[in-house]
Design a protein that fits this description.
Layout lengths: L1 H15 L2 H32 L5 H11 L1 H15 L5 H20 L62
Helix pairs in contact: 2-3, 2-4, 3-4
């Protein structure tokens, strides 16, 4: 039985003693270490865009580095869970949009008494009858004309002859 284990051990050691396999293993380890350092740099840059705290990016990078090259994927996964969801720019844009909406709403005229929306040309609030605008007495308001003359009245061309200036009886 010991001969079988010795033969298997010799076969495995001969594979790892091959210079091509040694080079491949060394390149894989170097690549993994570069990924580890790149992940810590990514965590640093990502936290810079998500937090105003000047210390937070350094803590995020240190968190990934502390997890050693073997466990850094677990650190990156954990960082992705606990990091802030919105970037600083997204929060700023959202706040600007909210302020613009509030300014737009406040620009709409409203009744000072009942706080309902009114038109700028309205003189009286239709809800609470509060006077909104004053009418200048010097402004002539157009009169509303009826589409037909009222019954029993004579139009200007249907006046009696006496009223038109014709000789009377």
């Amino acid at each position: 039985m010991d001969q079988i284990f010795t033969a298997i051990g010799d076969a495995i050691s001969s594979i790892f003693d091959n210079p091509v396999v040694k080079l491949g293993i060394q390149l894989t380890v170097i690549y993994w270490i570069l990924l580890w350092l790149a992940a810590s740099y990514w965590a640093f840059r990502d936290m810079q865009s998500r937090s105003d705290n000047p210390l937070a990016p350094y803590l995020a990078a240190a968190f990934v580095i502390i997890f050693t090259p073997l466990l850094f994927p677990l650190a990156v996964f954990t960082y992705r869970i606990i990091r802030p969801q919105e970037r600083i720019g997204e929060v700023y844009e959202r706040n600007l949009a909210e302020e613009a909406m509030l300014a737009e709403i406040e620009a709409i005229p409203h009744c000072p008494t009942c706080d309902r929306r009114v038109e700028a040309a309205w003189i009286i609030c239709p809800t609470c009858r509060t006077r909104l605008n004053r009418v200048c007495p010097n402004v002539v308001r157009p009169r509303v004309r009826a589409s037909r003359p009222a019954r029993g009245r004579l139009g200007p061309d249907r006046q009696p002859a006496d009223a038109r200036g014709a000789p009377g009886r």
